Amino acid sequence: MTILKRFGVSLPGDLLARFDNEIEQKGYQNRSEALRDLIRDYLVKRDLDKNEEVVGVLNLVYGHHVPNLSAKLNDIQHDHYHNILSNVHIHLDHHNCLEVIIIKGRYSEIKQLSDRIIGTRGVKHGELSFNSTGKNLSGV
Amino acid sequence: MTILKRFGVSLPGDLLARFDNEIEQKGYQNRSEALRDLIRDYLVKRDLDKNEEVVGVLNLVYGHHVPNLSAKLNDIQHDHYHNILSNVHIHLDHHNCLEVIIIKGRYSEIKQLSDRIIGTRGVKHGELSFNSTGKNLSGV
Amino acid sequence: MTILKRFGVSLPGDLLARFDNEIEQKGYQNRSEALRDLIRDYLVKRDLDKNEEVVGVLNLVYGHHVPNLSAKLNDIQHDHYHNILSNVHIHLDHHNCLEVIIIKGRYSEIKQLSDRIIGTRGVKHGELSFNSTGKNLSGV
Amino acid sequence: MTILKRFGVSLPGDLLARFDNEIEQKGYQNRSEALRDLIRDYLVKRDLDKNEEVVGVLNLVYGHHVPNLSAKLNDIQHDHYHNILSNVHIHLDHHNCLEVIIIKGRYSEIKQLSDRIIGTRGVKHGELSFNSTGKNLSGV
Fold first, then answer.
1. From the candidates D22, D43, D55, D135, which should be mutated to test the interface with C, based on the most C CB atoms within 10 A?
2. Is residue D139 part of a domain?
3. What confidence tens digit (pLDDT) does each residue in A70-86 have?
4. Are A8 and C12 in contact (CB < 8 Å)?
5. Are residues A87 and A70 in the same domain?
6. What percent of chain C has pLDDT over 70?
7. How far is B25 from chain D (nearest CA, A)?
8. What mean pLDDT do residues B26-45 have?
9. pLDDT tens across D29-46, in order?
10. Segment B109-116 long-range contacts (CB within 8 Å, at least 24 positions apart)
11. Do A90 and B95 touch (CB under 8 A)?
């Protein structure tokens, strides 16, 4: 069970007024809810800066007619199978595949593995994003 | 079949020397291969700037004990089922889920839908990245 | 005079513990100070999303031997003199100049002007960053 | 004098057609000019990745009534005077100052110094961007 703790914050009146206005527009129910989100975003950034264990989501687009590409991408992933949580493949059209590879590890490991995958001949374009593993990010 | 076209490029000698040095370190076989990658990256950025159809990959972390969260996330996605290509769910640990939602649409549509999903109460943190649909990004 | 307002926030205990730990490492004196910073960062992002008036800081590197470049850059800036607050020029070495152009306006205006300047022949590389105009970001 | 070198590039026909179309819209005179820009952007990114010497441009907004803030910011900068190339101060309005600090050094040094400055109590918001020192980025 999550135990909520309550504490006081002091903010300049005009800053608070503008914050209230913005979070209302965004649909937040109250200040605590909005502040929790800001705090979690901050903690995720800190995890990345400190090279903690995080989750990386790599997306790739490649042509499915490129000879051996799929096999090469598989080989690289098997070298790191303990880091790879999952792999989704989508047939975008007759020629193009989207592959999303979900990786767990330290920021630096994930970055290195992604660079290797994106650099494989035949991969058209790849982008990597990150998230927390969820630990210490209590979700209320 | 992909038809390769050949053309001449002129570059200052020192710029070319440094480029050659960097791409060799990165493992490229030749300049054409490296330039194709730079060109594709450029075209993906242009697609986003011009609000063309692209693929968005949204990742979310949330606690799987949050009541109704999963149902709410499903509802939002069903309102946009024609944009959502796929959905992967990973059990990160006893408490935490990672969900990756793959969305096709214009940049602005994908951004709006993602904001709504990320803003749902109980979602701890979300990140959105983009890729091309692969059209006009010939993959050789 | 800035009037401070005080209000209560409730946070899951584990989230609060981790937040306290991180902000102490960062040198914050107390939670209010750290939360004010997070709130201001959030408001600056909202200003950009909503195309409000902001400050853009554009930096350029170019070779100072390129004929007419300086004149061309000046011409573009004079077309937008009401947006340009200041301009700093630094002689990086015998060949290279850094120019920092400080621009006030809506996000979209600043972006368009920057693209035009960066695209001028002879500009080696340019980067644009943003800040608030400081209004509604009370600084305590 | 800059010596231009000429070499051949091969590209899939459809990729080349789309590239030509995009760079024409952007106002480039020819492919070489556009490719030079892409190559320079790539080299700047490599400089940052490899922690080479670069130029950082830090912008800050702060309230000019905050006691001792200006003195504190000066003190920090004097500790690093050999890294700081220049400093511009702009009076945004009756209350707000924009300060742009131009820093030369390795990426990691600049990042650390910026974090310290941004973290100073009274600074409302700061953003850091980077550029090359211009060496090895021949500007034709």
1. D55
2. no
3. 899 999 999 999 999 99
4. no
5. yes
6. 98
7. 11
8. 92
9. 899 999 999 999 999 999
10. B109/B83, B110/B54, B110/B56, B110/B58, B110/B83, B111/B56, B113/B76, B113/B80, B113/B83, B114/B56, B114/B58, B116/B76
11. no
At residue C138 the predicted structure's pLDDT band, cuts being 50, 70 and 90, is confident
> In terms of residue numbers, what domain contains B68?
53-131
Same-domain pairing of A41 and A78:
no
List for chain D the helix, strand, coil content (%; round to 5): 40, 35, 25
CATH code for position D118: 3.30.70.1150
Token pair 């490899």 is at which residue?
D50
Same domain, C87 and C74: yes
Q: Judge if B60 and B123 occupy the same domain.
A: yes
Per-residue confidence (pLDDT) for residue D139, from 0 to 100: 60
For the segment D5-33, the average pLDDT, to the nearest whole number, is 92
* Residue C41, min C-alpha distance to chain A (Å): 9
Tell me if D32 is assigned to some domain: yes
Q: Which residues of C touch A7 (CB under 8 A)?
A: 8-9, 11, 16, 31
Q: Residue B94 class from Cβ within 10 Å (0-12 exposed, 13-18 middle, 19+ buried)?
A: exposed
Mean pLDDT, rounded, for A125-132: 95
Q: C72 and C29 in one domain?
A: no
For range A98-119, the mean pLDDT: 94
DSSP states along A47-114? HHHTT-EEEEEEEEEEETTSTTHHHHHHHHHHHTTTTEEEEEEEE-SSSEEEEEEEEEEEHHHHHHHH
pLDDT (average), residues A10-24: 92
pLDDT exceeds cutoff 60 at A140: no
Q: Best of A24, A39, A46 to disrupt the C interface by mutation (most C CBs within 10 Å)?
A: A39
User: How near does any CA of chain A get to the CA of B66, in Å?
Assistant: 8
A–C: how many Cβ contacts below 8 A?
121
Say what the pLDDT of residue D140 is. Answer: 57
Mean pLDDT of all residues in A120-134: 92
Q: What's the domain count of chain C?
A: 2
Instruction: List chain D residues with CB under 8 Å of C139.
Output: 62-63, 66, 96, 122-124
Is there a single domain that holds both residue D26 and residue D75? no
**A32·C43 Cβ contact <8 A:** no
Q: Which residues of B touch D (CB under 8 A)?
A: 2-16, 18-19, 22, 31-32, 35-36, 38-43, 46, 136-140
